[in-house]
Design brief:
Layout (H helix, E strand, L loop, with lengths): L1 H12 L5 H19 L5 H22 L5 H8 E4 L2 E5 L30 H19 L1
Antiparallel strand pairs: 1-2
Helix pairs in contact: 1-2, 1-3
Amino acid sequence: MLIRKISDIILKEGKALKQEDLIRRLNSIIIGWTNYNKHVVASRTFSYVNNTIYLLLERWAKHRHPNKNKWWRLNKYWHERNDKPWVFMTDRNHLINLKTIDIRRHPKLQISKNPFLDEKYFIKRRIRLQSLAVARNG
């Protein structure tokens, strides 16, 4: 579903879009999808989606410049950013790389613990979850 939506944006709706506008639209979709899915074991899926987006963007660039070679298109649209080569970017904006998204799993609840008998465990767990939430947001 995500790849179909991104494909429509890149290859249908985005054929005439500027690179800046295309990056802005894709980033909003990618951020929403990764926020929903980063709590599951999704590193393979993130990698697959990342590679597919790259291939779709190559097709987009080829559509815009059909008479230029691949290296010319790569050098025009993909640049180095923070020592990372081949980032789809402009001077003001860059496309989010799904490989940089942290996959964080929820701390598992110990099923053998009882909230009425093991009160210390649940207090420590609540404090740990609150500190994790503060670290993520702050």
